[in-house]
Sequence to fold (395 residues):
Amino acid sequence: MTVVLSEKRTQLIIWTLLCLMPIIGMTVDLVAPSLPAIASGLQVSTKTAKDVISIYLVGYALGNFFTGFLTDALGRQKLIRTALFGFMMASLIPVFSPRIEILLLARFLQGLTIGAVALLARAIFSDILPPEKLVRLGTVIGTMWGLGPVIGPVIGGYLQFYFGWQAGFGFFAFISLLAFIAVFSVVPETHFMRHSLNIKTIKNNLMEIVTHRMFMAIVFLMGLAYSLIITFNTAGPFLIQTTLNYSPVFFGHIALCMGLVFLASTFICRYFLKQYKVEQLFLIVINLFFFITILAVVASYFFNKSITLIAVASALMFFACGFIFPMSMGKGLSFFRHIAGTATAIMYLINTLITSLIAFLASFINIQSAISMMFIYFLLMLACVFIYWGLIRRS
Fold:
């Protein structure tokens, strides 16, 4: 059911929710420049500091998943207000209690609450817009979200350099307070066709989705593709700042370039999708960038401390993700238009859990040169190749 609102009111709601997207997009990238400082300041290992990323992703996945079922029964307005307020409070916790256990708990709660906000915003868009306008809005949503990874590392780098790692969490608390005020003032309840939580229906829908071979292959591909970005966000700060002795501000500028590459690749991907089928682009992109990772591994043995190699190879991985991730998402959702909400919840749960697992496993690797990072890129693209040739091409 599409809610009938005036055009002016609809646009106000849309742009209020769109302004949440950069916040959602920067929750990993703004923290990344502070990882070495968290390790040294809280006197924990680099692995534990990297868990600040992986545990956030677990919370984000669970926030998306459970909110997908709750919102159909309870509505949108109260849940999105509660989630934004919860994110603000979770962001304040490390400011007043700088201990690693508290920080990890706060990051999990940040993920849980902002994951709920992300899903609720998408649900409200579906409530107030007809399908044809939703399709056109999709590119704007992607662009607004993509601003987060672009500006997040720069903001995080400067906050770290001048004020320390806790300043980033203070920043999150401040912008989420502004977002809460805006949503509280502007966004009404938009979902009135509610139903009670039916366990049998949920179970049947889940089984239909998880037993779909192509859908599951696509979701795993999404998780592996996004892991290319998370690898840079978790390992990059230590390699660039600690090993190569560059400043957090310098890392922030490098990460800014990565974000711009990712944004550019999504635009290029949309252009090529008008000319070619998804299957053709999968074939070219996955195999091409797998070959590129082989070359990067070879080059790393000759330039194992080269910031240029690290930056160029990482940018190419961001570019690959900008193609693979949106194509996989669009292809996956096309299978379950009749239960799109549940399919979206499952999709984001699984691919985010994959990403968090890879981030967790990568935290055990002490990356001291370009060689280790290039090998991780190679293994991730190798897994993409196996999924493509072993599952997607055969389906």
